Amino acid sequence: MRLAACLLALACALLAARPGLAETAGPYVHGEQRQGDRKLIVCLDEKDALGVARAVNGALQGLREEILAAPDDAARQKVFEEKLYTSVGWQHLMVAIYDDRCSLVEEADHVSRRTVQLGPPELLAIDASHSVVETEMLYGESRAPLTVWVVTTQPVPPVGQ
Predict the structure, then answer these.
(1) Three-state SS at 41
(2) pLDDT score, position 29
């Protein structure tokens, strides 16, 4: 239980306490390097990334109207803390992190290659539509690429592009 609480605190901190305000490099343009992109949800397997995106999007869809109706950031934060972070969908993300199938990466350089799945359009209004992008993370001094899948709320090109 203590580990779960620590993971939850870490996830909240890395995702800036609002799911839609995570990554910092803006919209994706495949083939262009994203330097110093921050607060990434990175999965080692496409299937895991798709599962995480589906689970988190599902949890957010159930809270969409409440989030939209919140009068200010403090009220929205309360919805996230009391309802999103305790949801089955968010816990799916936490388990993937705990099992080392996905990670919360504070900062990385990467080059996206293709959009695998677009997030639900109805979650765009709350900046929380989670899409999945295949990307090459650039590691170490050699900048060796490793293919991973990023779950992102940033705008992405259409699927397959």
Answers:
(1) strand
(2) 95
Give me 93's structure tokens.
């993300």
pLDDT at 22: 57
38: tokens are: 């921050």
What is d(CA 97, CA 101) in angstroms, rounded to the nearest whole number? 6
Determine contact, residues 18/77, Cβ cutoff 8 Å.
Answer: yes
> Percent helix, strand, coil in the chain (nearest 5)?
45, 30, 30
Max distance between CA atoms of the chain, in angstroms, equals: 48
How far is Cα 63 from Cα 69, in angstroms, rounded to an integer? 10
Residues 6+ apart with CB under 8 A from 88: 55, 59
> What residue ranges of the chain have pLDDT lower than 70?
1-22
